[in-house]
Design a protein that fits this description.
Layout: H1 2-13, E1 18-21, E2 26-28, H2 29-45, E3 53-57, H3 62-74, E4 77-81, H4 87-97, E5 101-104, H5 106-110, E6 121-124, H6 128-132, E7 150-155, E8 165-169, H7 170-184, E9 191-194, H8 203-211, E10 215-218, H9 224-234, E11 238-241, H10 243-251, E12 265-269, H11 275-285, E13 288-295, E14 300-305, E15 324-325, E16 330-334, E17 347-352, E18 359-360, H12 364-370, E19 371-372, E20 375-384, E21 390-395, E22 400-402, E23 405-407, H13 409-417, E24 422-432, E25 436-445, H14 453-461, E26 472-475
Parallel strand pairs: 1-10, 3-4, 3-5, 5-6, 9-10, 9-11, 11-12, 12-13, 25-26
Antiparallel strand pairs: 1-2, 7-8, 8-18, 13-14, 14-15, 16-17, 17-20, 19-20, 20-21, 22-23, 24-25
């Protein structure tokens, strides 16, 4: 099984090298391997069996990854939970997957005293009982887990509705990791600061670099100061973040006095990179950039644009391409009937290959809806250029149809963001008697900046065709985004 092989190989090849670091401790590859095996036996002693679902409710810490690997070794399915979810949301996910146990930080577990009846085990990752788990467990045989056995239920980010449980197997992790590493060409000395949570598909980035023997630095939550300090303290070579995190880091006062010279590559994804942030980062950091385009349903990151293909900031006119699909996976742009479109024509991006999910957990109808003749529908509109690079335009559900013309909110958002007073922007459609739908812009201004709706509308008038211009501008303190940096447009729609 791939995750077990990953641990065994790194123990053999680099036993004394640091594998994981958090704010409390670090572990070597030998310690990571041995603890995972010990923990698997301890969890088996508690009665967790092959096929059981086990929810994990925690901020990022070493014990989270130890638990994932141990549960996979048992053939049990780990179910990461977003620790910011409300009590009914957590209970709903636990009930839908029929989890028999919840592992988590004690503070978070205390917020959820009432869990569904299926849960028979509650275990705090930060208490002595967890640390001691398995230390005295008798030697016992563990099951042989095939790469095609399901090992995780990862939940989508739910920007448009209820989160769906994506069932994945070890073969998916393996396919994405091997294809990605062919493109990324990792060296043996990578130290990666992971700014993103380990409870959805973005964790596959960390698993992928762990497969290459990298050291992964975990943080209990992102703050600019914490991320900057982690890079300096651990002499990090790589960072994995979303563009908004990079913006906050560059704006932080500490960024000017922090030694970031060890950085060689910043991986970013989940949202488009604002061109002003990119230009500032290129000038100030002097490192390479790698775009990550992925989707939980297709195994995580399946497209990348490496540092050697990133354009100079002055050469970017509209958007930075996402990049090329990783070896082993296939992608194309199709029309509504599923027919492949010529290069340069906008359609829905669809994906297939060994990285795709087994399906949504206990939801065959939703699985059928997202599947098109064996391809997974991403819900993203984009096109492929003559060299095989994919560029995204917008989400299919976000497109505004104004009197029969397609208006892409992301294009309006980019135009608004070029105004110096605008910190963030989101555009949604609002009903209109004459045109059916027109754009409505929500704007968050920079601290202390002043700009009225008239000024912003005049600004975009010089950048956009009349049918693309917002009908109205509303000012808000902050654009709602999930932890992955994606705009939560369902809370903005009128």
């Amino acid at each position: 099984m791939w995750l077990t092989q990953l641990l065994e190989r790194n123990r053999q090849c680099r036993p004394g090298r640091t594998a994981l670091v958090d704010e409390e401790r670090s572990v070597t590859w030998a310690e990571f391997h041995d603890r995972t095996l010990e923990l698997a036996r301890g969890l088996a002693e508690l009665g967790i069996e092959r096929g059981d679902r086990v929810a994990v409710l925690s901020k990022d810490r070493i014990e989270v990854l130890e638990s994932y690997f141990a549960l996979a070794r048992l053939g049990a399915l780990f179910v990461p939970l977003n620790h910011s979810l409300a009590e009914p949301e957590v209970a709903g996910i636990v009930e839908r997957v029929g989890a028999v146990a919840v592992l988590g930080e004690s503070e978070l577990l205390d917020r959820h005293p009432e869990l569904p009846a299926s849960v028979r085990i509650r275990l705090a990752l930060d208490k002595p009982a967890f640390a001691a788990l398995g230390a005295l467990a008798a030697e016992r045989d563990l099951p042989d887990v095939a790469d095609t056995d399901p090992i995780a239920v990862l939940h989508t980010s739910a920007t448009t509705g209820q989160a769906k449980g994506v069932t994945v197997d070890s073969a998916s992790f393996r396919a994405i990791a091997l294809g990605w590493l062919v493109m990324a060409r990792p060296t043996d000395d990578i130290v990666m600061v992971n700014c993103c949570p380990l409870y959805h598909g973005s964790m596959v980035v960390s698993l992928t670099y762990l497969a290459a023997g990298a050291t992964v630095v975990l943080m209990p939550g992102f703050t600019p100061q914490r991320a900057l300090s982690a890079v300096e303290r651990h002499r990090a070579t790589h960072m994995w973040l979303v563009p908004q995190m990079l913006r906050f880091m560059l704006q932080a006062r500490a960024s000017h006095r922090t030694d970031l010279s060890s950085l060689r590559e910043i991986l970013y994804g989940a949202a488009p990179m604002p061109l002003d942030v990119y230009a500032d980062a290129v000038e100030r950091l002097g490192c390479g950039f790698r775009q990550v385009y992925g989707m939980t349903e297709v195994g995580g990151p399946f497209v990348t644009l490496g540092p050697d293909e990133h354009p100079a900031p002055g050469d970017v006119t509209a958007r930075i391409p996402c990049g090329r699909v990783v070896p082993g996976m296939s992608a194309r742009a199709v029309d509504e009937g599923g027919r492949e479109l010529p290069r340069g024509e906008i359609g829905e991006i669809v994906v297939r290959g060994p990285g795709v999910m087994q399906g949504y957990w206990n939801d065959p109808e939703a699985t059928r809806e997202i599947t098109l003749d064996g391809w997974i529908r991403t819900g993203d509109l984009g096109f492929m250029d003559e060299e095989g690079r994919i560029s995204l335009v917008d989400r299919t559900k976000d497109v505004i149809i104004r009197a029969g013309q397609n208006v892409y909110p992301s294009e309006i958002e980019r135009a608004l963001m070029t105004h110096p007073a605008v910190r963030d922007a989101a555009v949604v459609g609002m009903p209109d008697e004459d045109y059916g739908e027109v754009p409505l812009a929500y704007v968050a201004l920079e601290p202390g900046a002043e700009a009225g709706a008239v000024a912003l509308l005049a600004h975009v008038a010089g950048l956009l065709a009349p049918y693309k211009r917002p009908r109205r501008v509303e000012f808000i303190e902050q654009v709602p985004r999930n932890p992955a940096g994606k705009i939560i447009k369902k809370v903005l729609r009128v």
